[in-house]
Structures are given as structure tokens and as C-alpha cells.
Specification:
It is a single chain. The protein has 227 residues and is mostly helical. The chain contains 8 helices and 4 strands. A two-stranded antiparallel sheet has the order 1-2. A two-stranded antiparallel ribbon has the order 3-4.
Length: 227
């Protein structure tokens, strides 16, 4: 998800993610061009949807191709925000388009994986893979919605992701090719079906905490339209 990538905490700068640095360098030449951040969001969305579609047949070749598209989509997710901040072309509509693209790609990804796994293999688990995909997708949809609400109420910094050594939580998606190469999509789907609802419950508690804060409305009104 595209967010401001340079923050300060306790007077010290937080290291910007490596992929955001590379994205900023790559889109630098587009700063004064006709290309807008929304164009890059559309390219990212297209790559993500193509990746999800590749997982649906469930074959080894198509799944690996889907993983490549997913990695590309995850990286491109940084380019629109970097171009927006670099060129000053930030907008509320663009920001919402970016967030909705994030949600759509991620939700459809796990649904497509469940369809592909269910079509080509007999699951070793008691729970049908389609149910696991639906559970993961629903939980992820809730997470995205609540994060949008938290951002509206408390500002963008309230939804900042944890980072370590230049990597963010979402960067785990870069490991998807390892899962496809090792034929480990079924365990990955089970992990998503367990971890996504668990994280969603934490976001629900965070949202309830923000709603109870009297300063939430004023903070959200000054959060701006940064992509």
C-alpha cells in the first residue's frame, strides 16, 4: 500500500523501505511528464488482476507466472505514491483509488489461489480450500475498510506499517514465488485463513480505540490527501 515513506520518531529518521527507494528512482524521469499517479495505479491494478487470474488454473506453470505478476504488482504499488509526492499530484480521489486497488488485488488473490488449489489437488485439511480463501478474503476486506476509517479519523500516521531494516509487513508478498516454486500454496492459504482473521480482530480493537478518542475527528480532518 502506498504511504509516505519517510517518517521521524523520537527525533530520528525511520529508514525508508528499499522498494520505495527504487520506485522513487525509477519514476523520477516521469516527474514532469504527462504520466499521472493514477496511470501507475492502473498499471499496478492490471498486473495484480493478471496475477490473480494466473492462480485460478492451479497448475504449476500458471501459479509461478501468477507469483511473478504479484511481485510486480506489489512493487508498482509504491510507484504511484512516489510520483504523487514528487510531482505534487496528490489527490483524495487518487488516494482512494490506490487503497481500493490494494484491497481488490489482495482479496482476489486469495480467492483465486483457493480456486486453483481446489481444482487441481485434494486438500489434506478438513476445511475446504474455497472456505479458507473466502475467510482470508473477507478478513482482508475488513482490514482494508477499517484502516481507511482509522486514517480518516486519526490521520495517515495512525495506519503506518511496522518496518525493520528497510522492509515492511506487506513485503512478505515478495516471497510468493518461493511458495509457488515449492508447491506450498495450500499451507500458505491455511496460514492466511488463520492469520488474516487474527489480524482483523486486532484492527477492530484499534478502530474501536480510535473512535473513542475525542480528538479523532479533528485529527482526521487535517490528515490531508497524501497518496
Amino acid at each position: 500500500m502506498s504511504e509516505p515513506k519517510h517518517h521521524t520518531f523520537a527525533g530520528a529518521a525511520v529508514q525508508r523501505p528499499w522498494d520505495a527507494r527504487l520506485a522513487r528512482w525509477l519514476v523520477g524521469p516521469l516527474r514532469d511528464s504527462w504520466v499521472t499517479p493514477n496511470h501507475l495505479t492502473t498499471v499496478r491494478l492490471t498486473a495484480g488482476l493478471a496475477g490473480a487470474a494466473c492462480f485460478m488454473p492451479g497448475t504449476y506453470l500458471w501459479s509461478n507466472l501468477g507469483a511473478v505478476f504479484l511481485v510486480l504488482s506489489n512493487f508498482l504499488d509504491h510507484t504511484d505514491g512516489e510520483l504523487a509526492r514528487m510531482s505534487g499530484k496528490t489527490s483524495r480521489v487518487g488516494h482512494l483509488y490506490d487503497l481500493l486497488s490494494d484491497a481488490l488485488v489482495t482479496i482476489l488473490l486469495f480467492i483465486a489461489i483457493s480456486v486453483g488449489v481446489g481444482a487441481t489437488s485434494r486438500t489434506a485439511f478438513e476445511i475446504p480450500v474455497t472456505v479458507m480463501g473466502a475467510v482470508a478474503g473477507t478478513a482482508i476486506a475488513l482490514i482494508f475498510y477499517l484502516r481507511m476509517r482509522i486514517e480518516d479519523l486519526a490521520g495517515k500516521t495512525a495506519t503506518r506499517q511496522a518496518s525493520l531494516g528497510g522492509f515492511e509487513t506487506e513485503d512478505i508478498l515478495y516471497l510468493m514465488p518461493l511458495a509457488t516454486l515449492c508447491n506450498a500454496l495450500e499451507p500458505l492459504l491455511l496460514a492466511a485463513a488463520v492469520c488474516a482473521p487474527a489480524y482483523a480482530s486486532w484492527v477492530v480493537r484499534e478502530y474501536r480505540h480510535v473512535v473513542r478518542q475525542p480528538q479523532a475527528t479533528s485529527a482526521g480532518s487535517t490528515s490531508g490527501v497524501a497518496r
